[in-house]
Amino acid sequence: MFFNKEMETLPVNKMRDLQLERLKWSVRHAYENNAFYRKKYDAVGFHPDQLKTLDDIKRIPFLTKEEMRQNYPFGLFAVPLEKVVRVHASSGTTGNATVVGYTKNDIEVFAEVVARCLVGYGATEKDIIQVAYGYGLFTGGLGLHYGGEKIGAMVVPISGGNTERQLMLIKDFGSTMLACTPSYALNIADYIEKKRPDYDIKKTKLRAGIFGAEPWSENMRKEIEQRLGIEAYDIYGLSEVIGPGVSGECSEKSGLHIHEDHFYVEIINPDTGEVLPEGEKGEIVYTTLTKEAFPGIRYRSRDITRLYREPCKCGRTLIKMEKVTGRSDDMLIIRGVNVFPSQIEAVLMEIEGIEPHYQIIVDRKGALDDIEVKVEVNEKIFSDEIKVLEALSKRIADRFRSVLGISAKITLVEPMTIPRSEGKAVRVIDRRKI
Amino acid sequence: MNVKQLSLFLENKPGHLENALKVLADRNINIITLTIAEASDFGIVRMIVNKPEEAVKALKESHFTCSLTDVLAIEIEDKPGSLLKALHAFSKHNLNIEYMYAFTEKRGDKAVMIFRFDDIEKAKTSLLEEGYSIVKNIDIIGA
Fold first, then answer.
1. How far apart (Å, rounded) are the C-alpha atoms in residues A27 and A297?
2. How would DSSP label each residue in B60-108?
3. B3-69: what fold?
4. pLDDT (tens digit, 9 = 90+) per residue, A356-370?
5. Residue extents of the structural domains in chain B
6. If exposure means fewest CB atoms within 10 Å of the residue's CB, which of A15, A114, A116, B24 is most exposed?
7. Structural domains of chain A, count
8. pTM of the full structure
9. B114 in contact with A at a CB cutoff of 8 Å?
10. How near does any CA of chain A get to the CA of B113, in Å?
11. Interface pTM, i.e. ipTM
């Protein structure tokens, strides 16, 4: 089953022709309509006219997350603001957030790629899709919402959280598909086990889950499928490229088909930037081919994966990527929220007296990620009164919640207890087995 | 007339108090009285020692976070109702007690209690006005 059979089954040589034609348009569009791109390309002597083959893309310098941040909020838009109909943003402090814009047409493309994924999972207009991703600046909720509407399914925009209510609507509405983070799916399973043993989810109409926004393993898939009695499918995406729907699994669950008519992909060695041959593992780099408002040309995603093209039983000719399980930078994904240790450090440094000796411990307790931030107590922040220290912990936790959108447990520890290697503290301990 | 209390930050874990007290023992510092206030992950040890400055120095050298806090040691009659009477005097002067604890030994026929007020100067004036005897640091150490 296909949503757009022509594109999803296009012979590889034709896809390459289409990509080249679109790449030329996209790069020229960025160059001609965005000052940042133009200045950057002029500085290295690159001009869109130099693009004769797909291979010529190597002449173009990479685009980094840092550059996106430096252009906050609208510096990377390539259309006038009146053409922008929506924005999304990644998490982060105001100065660090990446704001992405969409024209009407971009929203159409966004909805279509999600729709393709949904059809790949077997969804039809008869399905009832309960969207338990967060709605808002995060692309998850609205992305799945528009994709679901596009295929004519009934969308239940419940957003994240409130597990009791999720269960009620699954039962009362007869939701057939659930879209959320895989860790929230496991959280629902835990909730049923502990608090609602009378609720038999296997007797509901729920038959499939659309899971993404954080890395998850084959083991998690098995666990979710077994405990919720559903088929669990991976959906992948990043707001810098478009949002969920950049790629998605099909019935085969053996890799995610990338919608390469809209996104051109390369794998590079993250240390040298060298483009690696197909099949090798490395960092995936994206170039948007059709986006108008926010073109991303050779965007370094920092996600580690492998690309391969093999005849897929589902009939799609689209290139496949392995499930992403690693990063080439230190970004952490905590309950679907992207967090860089540098952002945690920035929050801590705002608070007077705190020294840069802290440690971030991420663990998966039950189904959900837990983040603990250990802060060494020095004389500047120490008080003989418990209430003062407790207020400090609370203040730090509140800042993490409001600035980064994460609930962290703050633990005050004695000086010199955070291990230092060669004078530098070991900042992040990730104990999650993903 | 303020008494210097040694306040020490400790994680709420086995062996941590022991490690801190070893530092004091090695310097031959005597603990006259001690109390611990605990939160879930950490505690604050409050103690009166015979050589507070030396204690702070030694603990800091061993990477403990500690400080000296001014508290008042007040003599209170050792009979029923006398603490109540003292508290009444405090509330009359609108003095807020952050925390308090008692000495194990009596001074003559009087008990000695340590009070940490939010406004120590105001507390001193008021207590003297009420006729309470504030014990000087040197008196407690009894050296």
1. 7
2. HHTT--EEEEEEEEEEEESSTTHHHHHHHHHHHTTPPEEEEEE-SS-BT
3. VC0802-like (3.30.2130)
4. 678 889 888 777 788
5. 3-69, 71-141
6. A15
7. 2
8. 0.72
9. no
10. 17
11. 0.83
